[in-house]
Amino acid sequence: MLRFSPYKCCISLTMKPSPALSKMSFSRFASFLYLLSFVLLLQTVVGVDPLFHFCSSSEKFIDNGPYETNLNKLMGYLYLAAPPTGFGKGSVGQNHDQVNGLALCRGDVSNTDCKDCITEASTEIRKLCPDNKAAIVWYDHCLLKYSNMNFFGQVDYQNRFYMWNLNNVSYPTSFNQKTKELLSHLAQQGFVNQKMYAVGELELEESKKLYGLTQCTRDLSSSDCKKCLDDAISELPSCCDGKEGGRVVGGSCNIRYEIYPFLVNS
């Protein structure tokens, strides 16, 4: 089995300081009904380990306070909004209690798998980052991101990690060139289509093939999507030089290449 190792760049979400939230009373009954419905959804999902995650390092929210209530509502909204198209974004609350978030599913996964991944991500991120006002979690099939800052339409260059195949190719120079050629072509295709997603393949030596994927979160403009993908491609020599497979995964876009088919319908 091909193994991947994450390169932990240890960069957390950068956020502006905000006043501490004060406790306020609200309906226990309404909260109970909401949490009960969401828990029932979570029970249908089989646990899968995330690829990686980041938690905000400084700002925390108060347990059972307004921010947590808004975060719960946002998670429920993204669960419903994202699967039909593979992407959803929204904001809940006002002022210091506002939570902004998005969910993105890989372009080839079904609505059901998208929904399952978002549900898993929603419950897992609360365990990994229990009181953090901002967090990101990545799975093979989806990304979930939220923050008290409005990040929509801004390229996230800070939150990024790498994965690479432990096996080296026997012809690294030409292989690296082919990898850049394929991913650059897919970046060019991806940023101009509505889903901001592209996949493709390229012939290699000895009847082998190279498979690639590029994808952006759809809150970005097409030009910012292209910038994000180009920047990710430029990182390949730092993580994946001469490797049989690799990924550069960020909060706004990701790229991947392999020497085997890795899409659901491959």
TrEMBL record:
GO cellular component: extracellular region
Metal-binding listed as a keyword: no
InterPro entries: CRR_secretory_protein, GNK2, GNK2_sf
Compartment list: Secreted
Main subcellular location: secreted
Gene3D superfamilies associated with the record: Gnk2 domain, C-X8-C-X2-C motif (3.30.430.20)
Every Gnk2-homologous domain range: 49-151, 157-262
Keyword Ubl conjugation: no
Family: Belongs to the cysteine-rich repeat secretory protein family.
Name of this chain's protein: Cysteine-rich repeat secretory protein 38
Source organism per UniProt: Vitis vinifera (Grape)
Gene assigned in the entry: CRRSP38_4
